[in-house]
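ok, trying the design again with the full structure, not the truncated one.
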């Protein structure tokens, strides 16, 4: 069975993963993948935080296994969903379609190339075709969104006021799961795009304490509309991949 696209879900995405679940073995570990059907499209649903633990924290997610599993089942396109804090006063509950990133992780393995050198180009890390389909769906529904740079931190702690003050000079939103996914997808020449849900103000943007509860509560109110956006965007993806993602490693090997 041909699978058209994979959706990577974060916190609160368990409702995405109902369906025919199978375990995909990879060189990096096993990954649970649920296959659903929508409007004649086959969609692979993967929850990043699912695993042996009740909730796998962001710094312990097996990113290489997840991206490899997606390639293993023949999927060429990935749409990632991420919950983020705003560093630029985006409205809570609005969306950001990412167009660039800053990777501030310290310990995550961010490449498949352990034994040879591949300098993959990241000039345009997010697939512009998938991103456009996401933005078209958001426009169609009259929803508030913007483009922006995603800053990824290690977690699992939230960031400090000083860190947010620094990061806000070069980024728009901050999260803990967007990297190294996008880099790993690029190395396997897969199309990858991300739609972020603004769940909270980043540290120092208000006087309030940041809690995990507020993130979960906001996501609970946006999951249904987010799924509608994803399905609509998938329905409008062109059959052929007419982007440079499929040639990402061309000329990159030493």
């Amino acid at each position: 069975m041909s699978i058209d696209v994979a959706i990577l879900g974060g916190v609160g995405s368990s409702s995405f993963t109902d369906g025919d679940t199978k375990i995909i073995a990879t060189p990096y570990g096993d990954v649970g993948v649920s296959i659903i059907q929508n409007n004649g499209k086959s969609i692979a649903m993967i929850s990043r935080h699912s695993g042996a633990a009740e909730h796998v924290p962001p710094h312990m997610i097996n990113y290489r296994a997840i991206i490899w599993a997606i390639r293993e089942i023949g999927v060429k396109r990935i749409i990632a969903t991420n919950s983020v804090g705003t560093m630029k006063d985006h409205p809570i509950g609005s969306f950001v379609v990412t167009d660039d990133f800053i990777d501030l992780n310290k310990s995550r393995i961010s490449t498949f190339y352990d034994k040879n050198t591949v300098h993959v180009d990241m000039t345009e890390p997010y697939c512009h075709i998938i991103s456009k389909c996401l933005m078209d769906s958001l426009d169609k529904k009259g929803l508030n969104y913007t483009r922006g740079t995603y800053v990824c931190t290690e977690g699992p702690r939230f960031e400090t006021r000083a860190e947010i003050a620094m990061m806000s000079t070069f980024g728009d939103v901050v999260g803990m799961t967007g990297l190294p996914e996008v880099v790993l997808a690029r190395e396997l020449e897969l199309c990858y795009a991300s739609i972020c849900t603004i769940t909270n103000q980043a540290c120092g943007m208000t006087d309030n304490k940041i809690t995990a509860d507020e993130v979960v509560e906001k996501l609970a109110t946006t999951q249904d509309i987010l799924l509608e956006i994803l399905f609509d965007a998938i329905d409008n993806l062109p059959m052929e991949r007419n982007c440079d993602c499929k040639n990402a490693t061309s000329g990159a090997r030493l």
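Keeping the full-length input from now on. Residues 5-247 form a domain with the Rossmann fold fold (CATH 3.40.50.1580).
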